[in-house]
Predict the structure.
Amino acid sequence: MSKKTFYLLGIVLTIILGTILYYFLCCSVCCNAEKGANNQDETESVVSPKLKEITKNAFLINDANGDFNLKLNDNFNFKTSNFSIEEPVSKDIENGVLKLKDYLIENPLKNINITGFYRSDETNNSAYPNLGLARANSVKNYFVLHGVSSKQIDTNGKLNDTINPDENSTLFGPVSFNMLTADASDTSSMEALKTACDAIKENPLVLHFKTGQASINLTAEQRQKIADISHCVDKLGVKMQVIGHTDNTGDAARNIVLGQERADFAKAYLTQNGILDSNIETSSQGPKVPVADNATEEGRAENRRTVITIN
């Protein structure tokens, strides 16, 4: 075989070897890059959060056994972890409530049930057992201030994690309404209510706190008692009584003033938490009604109290 033939054969082998090396090297780099890109796409698809659709509930009240039917696109709105109605309330809502007032006056056996909703990730800073009930109470107060009788309103709260706020933490219409007709011949409900309210008089809510304290932290049991007292006020037309008491240390006249200050502080707390100012009466007994021995510090601490009941 001539030198020329060997030379040509070497060129051919070099070309073949180069092609093979190029294929494997390129495939390794390109395939890894493509695989990395695919993994990145998969990762991005996993971590990208799915946007939740904002909940917007209409203001809807319908009397299934009558001729009242109201549906408005607006509603009462609330910030998350808040029970105060967002202002301003639309004119359509105000006019709708006035129509409801006229209908309830004409139909005294009709009752409107307000259910307030709350999410499990919200913080309850109200005096009520849950934020939903506090919201329902705020809407009830709006109704009452626009002429609806509180005796024709029932309130309750319900957990609902399907309601979603917008990007500004506003919940649009986390309340629903249901109209029912009361049975005039059924007196058992009213008798049960009176029994429950009499029990509150026998065992009122008692708060102990230091003078100058900025807030009141209620237990779950105390929150429920606030709700029960509020229910008695609404249904029986009684007043919430807030009475301040002191120990017998110091000047008697000053203790009367101090007891009144404690009662006024508790009233301010209650009104901030949705109890209408007109439904609360305050007074002071000073050191006149001790419940423990003033000779001991423990007894004096027990006597420094505010009692919340109904008349």
